[in-house]
Design a protein that fits this description.
Order of helices and strands: EHEHHEEHEHEEHH
Structural class: alpha/beta
Number of strands: 7
Distance between the termini: 51 Å
Radius of gyration: 19 Å
Number of helices: 7
Helix content: 40-55%
Shape: globular
Strand content: 15-25%
Oligomer: single chain
Largest sheet: 7 strands, mixed
């Protein structure tokens, strides 16, 4: 199966890319324990910023951007990670998903995550990212992961889990969805059923 991670980090190195890598590792390790092989592709939107802007004004993607969009829509599962700017996802992140057909992510398992300077922004997952992917009719895993600067290297406290535990939990939830779909794939559309229904019609 194929797992694609979309990282909207702007800096190099990027904590957003680092979180995307940790999450994909968690999903891959969990699926490996279940006997599934996973092909992972990480897409950095930073390198596609100009192509995304051009697509917004021309209506057509450049070949490289078209290939990336095809990878995202064709993946079995998706990890979407954005930095937080002004209490929401970045403009680059939103612009990329604006280019994807609104029906293309229907039913696709998606793990959402974000990075920011302080924990004050953590609700961005619930008021911005989850509604975005709910609109796209994706299947969003229950645990979303937010990583503030102080979370890196933190083990949590008596009331909260540390970042590694949250990553393992979210990765396990996405892996469980992917494994279930691999074991019981959705049936393909029966293109003859409508014709059969027509032929079965009897007119008195």
């Amino acid at each position: 199966m194929k797992l694609v991670a979309v990282s909207a980090g702007l800096s190099v190195p990027s904590s957003t890319r680092l979180l995307a890598d940790r999450l994909t590792d968690a999903v891959r390790d969990e699926l490996a324990d279940r006997g599934h092989e996973v092909e992972v592709e990480v897409i950095e939107l930073r390198a596609l910023a100009v192509a995304i802007a051009n697509n917004l004004v021309t209506g057509f993607p450049a070949p490289q951007l078209a290939t990336v969009i095809e990878s995202v829509t064709g993946a079995d599962g998706l990890v979407a990670v954005t930095p937080v700017f002004t209490a929401s996802y970045s403009g680059l992140f939103k612009s990329f998903f604006d280019l994807i057909d609104p029906e293309a992510l229907t039913g696709k398992p998606v793990l959402i995550a974000a990075t920011g300077g302080t924990a004050r922004h953590s609700l961005v997952l619930e008021h911005a990212l989850r509604p975005l992917f709910a609109y796209l009719r994706a299947v969003i895993v229950p645990t979303a992961v937010y990583a503030a600067s102080e979370d890196w290297g933190s083990g949590g406290d008596a009331y909260t889990q540390g970042l590694p535990a949250r990553i393992r939990r979210a990765g396990g939830e996405l892996a469980m969805l992917l494994a279930a779909r691999a074991a019981d794939p959705a049936p393909e559309d029966d293109v003859t059923s409508f014709e059969k229904q027509l032929s079965d019609l009897r007119f008195d």
